[in-house]
Amino acid sequence: MASGALAGKTIHELRALIAQGAISPADLLDDLLARIERINPSVHAYLDIDPERLRQEAEAQLRAAPRGGRLYGIPVTIKDNICVRGEETSCASRILQGFRPPYDATVIERLRREGALILPRANMDEFAFGSSTENSAFGPTRNPRAKDLDRVPGGSSGGSAAAVAADLAIAALGSDTGGSIRQPASFCGIVGLKPTYGRVSRYGLVAFASSLDQIGPLTKDAEDAAILLSVIAGQDPRDSTSAPVEVPDYVAWLKASPKGLTIGIPALPGAEGLSQDVRAAVDQALEAFRSLGVKTVPVELSHIDKAIATYYIIATAEASSNLARYDGVQYGFRAADGAGRSLLDTYLDTRSQGFGAEAKRRILLGTYVLSQGYYDAYYLKGMRVRTLIKRDFDEAFTRCDAIVMPTAPTPAFRLGEKLSDPLEMYLSDIYTISANLAGVPALSVPCGASPDGLPIGMQLLAAPFREEVLFRMAHAYEQARRG
Length: 483
What we know:
Elements: H1 11-20, H2 25-43, H3 51-64, E1 75-79, H4 106-113, E2 117-122, H5 158-165, E3 172-176, H6 182-188, E4 191-194, E5 214-219, H7 222-232, H8 250-253, E6 262-266, H9 276-291, E7 295-299, H10 307-322, H11 343-354, H12 357-370, H13 375-396, E8 402-406, H14 422-426, H15 433-438, E9 442-449, E10 455-462, H16 467-482
Helix pairs in contact: 2-3, 7-16, 10-12, 10-13
């Protein structure tokens, strides 16, 4: 096959080729690494790549893996905030530069158990703080779907999304706290899933906001997302928030027709900022669903307009608490000591020099809302509104099987366009945040493109632990689009 031909294929296509003996895992890895070496310098989806070391590690992994594993020989790219034993895991932050965890995250253990090859260090916004991957301490990732590479890939899992979109990855894992899988999936024209909170173990995920974070797949189609979730989902005794809920056969659900299902259509907040191209693409997708026998009904999410404010109270408060551990003592970056300097000086210098501007902003915001005299006014009130948002979704799902809305209000914006206006940047997640607050699963699927060729995604949301509904609908929609 021509160079790069294997890198552009899906997990399910490659599994068949490997099982037939048409290709070997070494052939696939060589093809992928050759493409990464050629294209990654301009896209910057990976923070670093050592091809020879990866080949050696792949050989060792394959010797230990069962040949019948569901991912035998398939490389899976990992966001830089998911711990991989012995590999640098910096969260794209200088304060964790050089940190190498002594253990694998649960999702990594489960991937290895099924024969996957681990490709670490996809670029990201520092500590997952951002919607553009411009907040990485090691430089931005560029959107490979933009003609001049002048657009953001979305964030914070922008490196993972760009790698999949540019065929520098077969599939990838990211994390989603307020849209960080789905929004970059939309911007890069791929599939991205935020599972139900508790569906996937967070053990080994470097925490941003512990009540919101979830690990999920970024893939080339819905079938690959179903395969990956089948591998990484399930209860984990090391994560007390992982749910003791049976994991269904997601791949089997792909064959089920969506006929007879009902889609709920809510009134959208921030309609004045919704691009006409995005609105038209989602409307066309709804027509496609109707032609498949899916019904549509209006649903009310009366508190969804409060989601942005609620999220940035809760998420920053939890971030402030989680990031308090980075003090230069136990691991990572430490500011230079000097004569006569106190321990407090070392703490202050370490955190001032180690964290980037967006990380500092969120730590300060979170510390403020948790401070004496403001806790009840901000954090406690935010938690109450979160409960109302969850109740809205619970009520809506008594009337429909899934909710459809845009993933992002616009296609990918230009690099640097929103860096000077944090509030404008935060509004990029206006349609994704509510799923995290309610703890429901949500899937972004490509549904069109703008006149200049930039991808547009629509978002499907379902009731908790009903990911199979999302896969069933997304797969049917993909098949209908292919015609």
